[in-house]
Amino acid sequence: MNYQESLAYLESLNIFGIKLGLERMQKLLARLELPQERYRTIHVTGTNGKGSVSAMLAGILRHSGIHTGFYSSPHLVSYTERIRVDGQAISEQEFADCLSSIKVYIDQMIADGEECPTQFEVLTALAFFYFAIKHVEYAVIEVGLGGLLDSTNVIVPEVSVITNVTLEHADRCGGTLAGVARHKAGIIKEDVPVVTAAKGEPLEIIRQTAEEKNADLFVAGEDFSTEFISCAENYQCLEFTSHLLGVVKEPYSLHLWGKHQIENSALAVMTAQLLHNTDDRITNKTIDDALSLVSWPARFERVDLGEQKCIVDGAHNPAGMQALRESLDMYVPAPERVFLLGILKDKDIESMLDILLRPNDTVVVTVPHSERAADPQQLAQKVAAHVQHVEAIADNSQALERALELANKEKLLVLAGSLYLVGGVRKLLLDKKGGE
User: Fold this and answer.
1) 8 Å CB contact between 90 and 130
2) Cα 181 to Cα 292: distance, rounded to the nearest angstrom
3) Once rounded to an integer, what is the mean pLDDT over residues 172-193?
4) Which residue spans of the chain are classified as CATH 3.90.190.20?
5) What is the bridge-based pairing of β-strands 194-196 and 301-302?
6) Most buried among 151, 163, 305, 323, by the most CB within 10 A?
7) Confidence check: pLDDT of 190 > 80
């Protein structure tokens, strides 16, 4: 297969949809001779922040001289973004070659009367297989959905990380906050330490699961914390403290804006400190070096276009919108803002709009690249109750042009609402930036 043929094959697997469960994944990996067992792993789940924490951890390992794999989802533009080694995305040809190899075993499974793996299971197996071929030492693995029954939950990591837990994907994870928490806690393994920023009922469920699994639990705000000191144009100055580890006010710089990234970075630093106990290549210096350079696209990302200030953020649920609103108010306060918004119809749209918008905001509504996208006219009607002016433009390119026109280099422009929107619109913005 070439890359385009590999994409067509992946698309054909979409007919199987999302099927939670590990049996298909385990059978496929067994045929591949268990590639995920040939290197150490770190497993990261959570409602929000898991991608940022994973990117930070991959950066810390890499800057510590460790040959590192990184698997994340979803992608912004290309499937190749999901699978990286030492910061470099898998090439299109490598992607196609690995998928060709895996397809042989999938065809065997089907011939033997076994169920065909889903698209996400095949992508996950591809990542595990590629990391084994590349002989990585560590791989940071981000959960796709939930945890307990997610395709990635076949690994036994060095550390399990649970960022936070709010009511997201409840239809597939038990229907309640407690049900979601149990699915997130499902990545906890016997005797494997857990680092979390969960609070309230979810924390209690995680705590109970950790006790049952004899897993040491480290909780943000109890066993470790990070304090905001100041911020500059491109980074935040922070201090990490863990009296449990004997670390007090260890300074570091974070090359990511956003109030939520303060807590996310605390999780990454705590995890790195635990890994240091078994790998002394990881030090305070390598942690600082990595975090001062880390990037994670479309997560409160500053992408200015000439004099036009722009923030790109993939906030796609109420907790994400809360983090975005707080970060906007803290880092780039502006009397008037223009939003380019696209939201999926199965989200809690009313709560998201209540949290994010102010009466003097202007909004351009457009359509994310997803079958689950909310109708722009219906979304615009809901937005209208919150702001001074709203327009609906289905075409993303035209919507961006109109948003830029309304901002007019005077108002802050914010692109948000769904990663299925901001990936493509971010690329349009970067193309414009390149043509300045």
Assistant:
1) yes
2) 32
3) 89
4) 301-434
5) unpaired
6) 151
7) yes
Structure token pair of residue 22: 């590990």
Residue 20: predicted pLDDT: 72
CA triplet 132, 31, 136: central angle to 5 degrees?
5
Q: What's the rounded Cα separation, in Å, for the pair 147 and 149?
A: 6
Query: What CATH number should be reported for the domain whose range is 3-291?
Result: 3.40.1190.10
| Cα→Cα distances 368→278, 282, 377, 379, Å | 44, 40, 13, 12
CA count, 13 A, side-chain hemisphere, 151: 23
Q: What is the pLDDT of residue 59?
A: 98
Q: What is the DSSP string of 243-255?
A: TTTTEEEEEEEES
What single-letter amino acid sits at 423?
A: G
Q: What are phi and psi of 310, to 5 degrees?
A: -135, 140
Cα–Cα distances in angstroms (integers) from residue 7 to residues 119, 373, 401, in the given order: 10, 22, 30
CA 163 remoteness from chain centre = 11
Contact 414, 328 (CB under 8 A): yes
pTM exceeding the 0.70 threshold for the entire prediction: yes
Closest to 70 measured CA to CA, from 104, 44, 48: 44
Distance CA(138)–CA(158), nearest Å, equals 9
Per-residue model confidence as pLDDT tens digits over 146-171: 889 999 999 999 999 999 998 765 45
301-434 has CATH 3.90.190.20 classification:
yes
**Strands of the 159-162 sheet, one edge to the other:** 88-89, 83-85, 68-71, 138-142, 40-45, 159-162, 194-196, 217-219
Rounded Cα–Cα distance for residues 290 and 334 (Å): 31
Which part of the chain has CATH 3.40.1190.10? 3-291
Give residues with Cβ within 8 angstroms of 44, minimum separation 6: 50, 53, 54, 57, 140, 141, 142, 143, 160, 161, 163
